[in-house]
Amino acid sequence: MALAVGVVVRYRKAVTYGVHALLAALETAGVEHELRLGTTPEETAEHITAGQADRVLVLWSFYSPDAEAMAAELATVRSLSGGRGLHIAGGVHATAEPQQVIDAGWDLAAIGEGESTIVSLVRRSSGTSRTLTRSCRCRARRGGTPSPRSSRWRP
Q1: Tens digits of per-residue pLDDT, 18-50?
Q2: Which of 143, 98, 101, 146 is nearest to 121 (CA)?
Q3: Distance CA 27, CA 113 (A)
Q4: Can you tell me whether residue 117 is helix, strand or coil?
Q5: Most Cβ neighbours (<10 Å): which of 69, 75, 83, 126?
């Protein structure tokens, strides 16, 4: 049986501490999800398309000096995965420059500490909620985030 939510992390050596804290928060909260770590844009896209979950959250974390390179990777991943998944940027740059992150192509910019934000997003994605960002500190792309019923959520 497929889980409702898949979490794919663009896993980079430069930002492992924050990612590990997020993953520990998900485990501690007992939130059911399918987890995959992508170490390259190609592997990340493959995980997005190969996952068995109904909905996919794609997590990105980066520092400001890496923002331009990560935006280029995001474009590659979106292209290779057929646009599937809700891409969420977190970390220092997303907190400091959330609108720049949205303008660069991410669906959501997670602001501040990510542990409670990711737990909330995964929980809300597992249900039928139409508003993913209501209970977390995120900035959404103009027009809001895709509904869990939209094509971005489904294979």
Answers
A1: 778 888 888 888 888 889 999 999 999 999 999
A2: 146
A3: 17
A4: helix
A5: 126
Hey, what amino acid is at 103?
A: D
- DSSP3 helix / strand / coil % (the chain, rounded to 5): 45, 20, 35
| Two structure tokens written together for 46 | 């493959």
Quote the tokens at residue 27.
Answer: 């485990």
Q: What residues contact residue 41 under an 8 Å CB cut-off, 6+ apart?
A: 10, 73, 76, 77, 80
The encoded tokens of residue 74 equal 């995001």
Q: How many residues does this entry show for the chain? A: 155
pLDDT digits (tens, 9 = 90+) for 79-110: 999 999 999 999 899 999 999 999 999 999 99
pLDDT of residue 136: 53
Return the amino acid letter for 90. G
CB 80, CB 45: distance < 8 Å: yes
Residue pair 102/145 in contact (Cβ under 8 Å)? The answer is no
> Computed over its alpha carbons, how large is the radius of gyration of the chain?
14
The whole-angstrom separation of Cα 2 and Cα 55 is 10
- The token duo for 71 is 């935006």
